[in-house]
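Exercise 7b. Backbone tokens:
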């Protein structure tokens, strides 16, 4: 089986639980460190799937790796190679596929409930209609043409979309406890434009031992559906 390519855009925003899940299901993966100067491959054919992680930049920035990344996503979709995106990764997918990324009406930092937004969510989440996810974003994506919104939240209308075997998410279901604690070190800078959906590090730490396993129950369903589309050859 070809590996899943995992694209990291910031040293603190690695694959987290997504990598743990892949390894538990014997799915090989390789890390492409965009943050250390690695270039996106010119074509997706050497991989069974593409995964794009988060990052502090905007997909609207003038960065040299953005244009080849958009082309790579479009090529994967054309070839039926599954793509999954987390936060910035979901925004990359949306823009590559004809959507837009704009400022969210509030900055969303911390834990917050997401809920299903269409019957199509059943294919990905079964009978789960809502769960608490982790959030860390100030921008949001539109649903690209042909895709279907499956998740929403009180502070962000578009939390996830699907297009065939492809899944773009605004929320972070890949989080681990250590990742959350690392990100909280940058909370003061991120909180410069605070709003009603911004939690303090102390609030993010509350019930961590309950929240992470509950979120992983949702992540397991989403990731299980996604890896079912990977080619085994």
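Sequence design result:
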């Amino acid at each position: 089986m070809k590996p899943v390519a995992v694209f990291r855009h910031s040293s603190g925003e690695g694959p987290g639980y997504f990598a743990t899940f892949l390894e538990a299901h014997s799915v090989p993966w390789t890390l492409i460190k965009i943050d250390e100067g690695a270039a996106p491959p010119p074509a997706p054919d050497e991989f069974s799937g593409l995964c794009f992680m988060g990052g502090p930049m905007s997909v609207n920035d003038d960065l040299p790796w953005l244009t080849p990344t958009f082309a790579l996503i479009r090529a994967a979709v054309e070839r039926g190679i599954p793509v999954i995106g987390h936060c910035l990764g979901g925004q990359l997918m949306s823009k590559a596929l004809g959507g837009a990324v704009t400022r969210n009406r509030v900055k969303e930092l911390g834990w917050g409930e997401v809920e299903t937004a269409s019957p199509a969510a059943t294919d990905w989440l079964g009978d789960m209609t809502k769960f608490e996810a982790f959030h860390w974003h100030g921008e949001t994506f539109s649903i690209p043409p042909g895709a279907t919104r499956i998740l929403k939240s009180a502070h962000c209308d578009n939390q996830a979309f699907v297009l065939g075997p492809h899944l773009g998410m605004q929320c972070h279901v890949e989080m681990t406890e250590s990742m959350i604690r690392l990100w909280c070190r940058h909370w003061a800078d991120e909180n410069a434009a605070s709003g009603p959906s911004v939690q303090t590090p102390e609030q993010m730490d509350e019930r961590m031992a309950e929240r992470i396993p509950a979120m992983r129950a949702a992540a397991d369903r989403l990731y299980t559906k996604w890896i079912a589309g990977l080619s085994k050859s």
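Instructor comment: The chain has eight helices and nine strands. The beta strands are 4-8, 29-33, 49-52, 83-86, 101-116, 130-141, 148-153, 160-163, 166-169.
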